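Page 47, continued from p. 46.
Same chain as before, 77 aa.
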Amino acid sequence: MEKESKEKNVKCVYVNKGKHGHSHGFMGGGFYGLAFIGAAVYYVQQSSGFWPGVLGVLKALVWPAMLIYKVFTMLNM
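Result:
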């Protein structure tokens, strides 16, 4: 019985060898996704029609670039 469980554990370790189930990166993608949804809702609510709403969604995609541009202009960089 003990021998079978050892073989089973070795097999499980071998099968999972080299496969990573998690990432080691920053969760910026999740933050960006939530911020995109929030910005899209804001811009679409402020729009007066269909095409301004589409423009609002496009603005929501690039809001970080606009934010950094404004910060740099305020800092005279």
